[in-house]
Task: structure prediction
Amino acid sequence: MTHDIKTHLADLMRAALSSVAPDQADTAIVLERPKQAAHGDFACNLAMQLARSMKRNPRDLAKLLLSEIPKSPFVGKAEIAGAGFINFHLLPSAKLEVIRSVLAQGKSFGRSTLGGKKKVQIEFVSANPTGPLHVGHGRGAAYGASLANLLAYAGWDVTREYYVNDAGRQMDILSVSAWLRYLALYGEDVLFPSNAYQGDYVCGMAEQMKIAHGDKFVRSAKSVLQGTPGLPENERTDDGAKAQREAQLDALIANAKGLLGEDWNYVHSHVLNEQLEDCRSDLEEFGVHYDVWFSEKSLFDTGLVERCIQRLEKAGHVYVQNGARWFKSTAFGDEKDRVVQRDNGLYTYFASDIAYHLNKFERGFERIINIWGADHHGYIPRVKGALAALDLDPDVLDVALVQFAILYRNGQKASMSTRSGEFVTLRTLRQDVGNDACRFFYVLRKSDQHLDFDLDLAKSQSNENPVYYIQYAHARVCSVLAQWDEANVEATLAEADLSCLDNPHELVLAARLGEFPEVIESAANELAPHIIAFYLKDLAAGFHSYYNAERMLVDDLALKNARIALATAVRQVIRNGLAILGVSCPQSM
RNA sequence: GCGCCCGUAGCUCAGCUGGAUAGAGUGCCACCCUCCGAAGGUGGAAGUCGCACGUUCGAAUCGUGUCGGGCGCGCCA
Result:
């Protein structure tokens, strides 16, 4: 019940408030944990808040409030300090009781009903399946997975979803890239465009096609190049050259479709499946699991994109200009109107994205969280605008932006472009650094903060990663328990006489355990799993400090059992916290 | 040019719905294993919270301006 100490104190303050200032009874009661031990366990600034509206001296008000605070079995003393704070000092027994709660509730300790079982969808990563995931995707994956675990722990009904961009031009480019590599295996060499996908994995897929189907897809290089504009000189970077390269790529795609006919669909789905499977297994190994893999193409197949645009059109939010259809997003706060259907009849990515969000609403999610790279922030107003235009509540949608992880190698910024093929994959990173360190490192800073990811440092100093500090605390408790000569562990701990625990280390540690449920709730409210990471570091620090100061396996039986109960509670909370972050808890290391 | 994010210890970062003497890790200095795991602990040095105004009992936190860094402003995805 220690978890409720805070609400208990709030009730006390509320009672005092209604007696001192009945007309201010709706003032919010704020209780915070003071930084300094001398200021007690909780501090309330109510007197200072009231001072403003009542135009009275805060210390006088504090005195009045203090005299009206009802007696409590948990409070040792309450006193006025500073400019008018009311500081509560809890009785040791009230602080220690949390140990019993932790042991009794086990892996449920810290769970919250904050979310009210409401349906929330979290969509994250959603990288184009055009190549391996890189370290930037890894951050979105670690953040999204931790956030999903966190919200589930805080009482939400969470659906984890990956939006598969299987309908666009990028997939066509990847397909034609693989096909050109395949042709090269048969001596039908076509100059490989620099804006096609360069990575080795593309050659790998070409070889797979050769192994599985032999020369079935071979066409002459001459026919492939038929009618294409050709490539400009490599050195040229002017707009004309760029446009020509894009045109060349499109012409190659068009030729490929014509020459291959039905076989084009095979190539296309082959490369899609290969990349998607690679991506899925990569994420699975990283401890990132999805409930739904949602196909963009399905939005077209079911006609939802079309219906969606028609619905906007009927509502008068779409107009035609220069042969294209525009959504009037400026009417909903966007900087400019956006094209939803090009003059060539093709829908834009934005169009299918509107349909996707409509679909999310139709599936009954009460809250929708999109995790996007920070470079997409300009995209938020148009999506929210589209929702408003469809008579949906834009506030149901939260977009959490994740800044890129900037990778440094040999002190230099490493490129992360997928097309150029010069990127460090998430797989490589995981193999070098380890999944645990990776997951923890990624969420150790606020998601909207740039992350300097120094590969060399992460590799060479992985032992200094804070994740080991926390895991070490866990392993230490395991070690003590292994050496504890006790047959009936659970019962003995449950019956431990906690009043034996009276030194400052023990009270501080117990108080910290009591904060865990609050930490969960504030992290969930702020969509900020890094708060849990920082909390766990503090908890581990408190334990290490205690461990160095006091022995657990002492002769005094009652004291021994009480200390082990505390240590076991610490271990439990570390487990609960690390589970949310997707980090393992080894018994020994 | 317009919009969004960020400037806190040598370095990497917490703290930001206003609260008391601004924190942690790392690096540096000095200590602690006859004792449950030293991947640990204890102590020390280290700060104009980018800068300037403003709001008020009180500002790292809120507002305006300014300087510096990042990103975005496609009939791309």
